[in-house]
Design goal:
This protein has 5 helices and 2 strands; from the N terminus they run H-H-H-E-E-H-H. By secondary structure, the protein is mainly α.
């Protein structure tokens, strides 16, 4: 580490802190009420689903940074069973329980 690296590190930390404070306090700083357009409000309804898919999908189809090359992976079958149960009953608890009921025997029993 040298003095130049330390200054860049300090500048990055201060810049990120400033952006964080500004974005979190944005609605408090304005002097008048701010309303979102209708399309943006509707799009925010899909944000949790998109975030969950972005976290779960790579975990299901990848292992150690590589796409799974074999169909003999318990995660694939557990995810398919969970998705089928969700579309059938629309129950999150049943989705989790059913997906794990398929995943665990394949993973522990067969070693997939």
């Amino acid at each position: 580490m040298n003095a130049q690296t330390d200054w860049w590190t300090l500048a990055a930390i201060l810049g990120l802190a400033g952006v964080t404070v500004l974005t979190r306090c944005f609605f408090f700083i304005l002097d008048r009420p701010w309303t979102m357009p209708g399309w943006a409000h509707r799009a925010l309804h899909y944000a949790p689903v998109a975030a969950l898919a972005g976290v779960v999908a790579p975990e299901v189809v990848m292992q150690h940074g590589q796409v799974i090359a074999s169909w003999q992976d318990a995660r694939l079958f557990g995810a398919l069973a969970g998705a089928a149960l969700y579309f059938w009953r629309h129950s999150v608890l049943l989705t989790i329980a059913g997906g794990m009921a398929v995943y665990l025997p394949l993973h522990v029993g067969l070693g997939w």
